[in-house]
Specification:
Blueprint (H helix, E strand, L loop, with lengths): L2 H4 L2 E5 L9 E6 L8 H10 L1 H10 L7 E5 L7 E6 L7 H20 L4 E4 L11 H15 L8 E6 L2 H18 L1
Parallel strand pairs: 1-6, 2-4, 2-5, 5-6
Antiparallel strand pairs: 3-4
Bound molecules: ligand AR6.
């Protein structure tokens, strides 16, 4: 992993709905019709236009991604992706990696330069944060070289404990590069 790729990654703690970026990623479910957690927060902040747009899309398979406008959000777009429900099987990691890869490719197709991800699947869907962090960072770093238009990827974590997991992992990667 090269240093310039690591420089395009950032970790923050806070509420994704407040971020003024080109796109925020929603940890949705296959219906795309809203739910709890970060999905509920995004729909509340975006207003009813978002649900209307999602209804027209008509759902999304696990691992894939769909894009809508951000409506009342500071972000121009919402990229909805559906993480796996953690089962402990090897397909979990593949599907979670698909979420990051497909969201980033969709972002690049829409000339997004800055994008923020929550910890997909790490709430209701039960994915262990440590494993999910490794997949999120490694997949993003692997795909960024082919997506030169994406300048910054923010991983935004709700809790300080989850943020510490990301900070530690990225710090380790940076040390290995020095
Ligand atoms: N900003 C950033 N992160 C947040 C926010 C926020 N405003 N709110 C929660 N998180 P979850 P999942 C964190 O459960 O596990 C929904 O009902 C949270 O602390 O939102 O992928 C959907 O409709 C956790 O670390 O998503 C699906 O049915 C992370 O976001 C289901 O939950 C993801 O937690 C998806 O479950």
């Amino acid at each position: 992993m090269t240093r310039d790729i690591l420089d395009r990654l950032e970790v923050q703690q806070g509420d994704i709905t407040r971020l003024r970026v080109d796109a925020i990623v929603n940890a949705a479910n296959r219906s795309l019709l809203g739910g709890g957690g970060v999905d509920g927060a995004i729909h509340r902040a975006a207003g009813p236009g978002l649900l209307e747009a999602c209804r027209k899309i008509g759902g999304c398979p696990t691992g894939e991604a769909r894009i809508t406008p951000g409506y009342r959000l500071p972000a121009a777009y919402v990229i909805h992706t559906v993480g796996p429900v953690y089962s402990g099987k090897s397909q979990d990691a593949r599907l979670l990696a698909d979420c990051y890869r497909n969201s980033l490719r969709l972002a690049a197709e829409n000339t997004v330069r800055t994008i923020a991800f929550p910890a997909i699947s790490c709430g209701v869907y039960g994915y262990p944060i440590q494993e999910a962090c490794t997949i999120a960072v490694d997949t993003t770093a692997a795909v960024l070289p082919e997506l030169s238009g994406i300048e910054k990827v923010i991983f935004i974590l709700f809790s300080s404990g989850d943020k510490a997991v990301y900070d530690t992992y990225l710090e380790g990667l940076k040390q290995a590069r020095q």
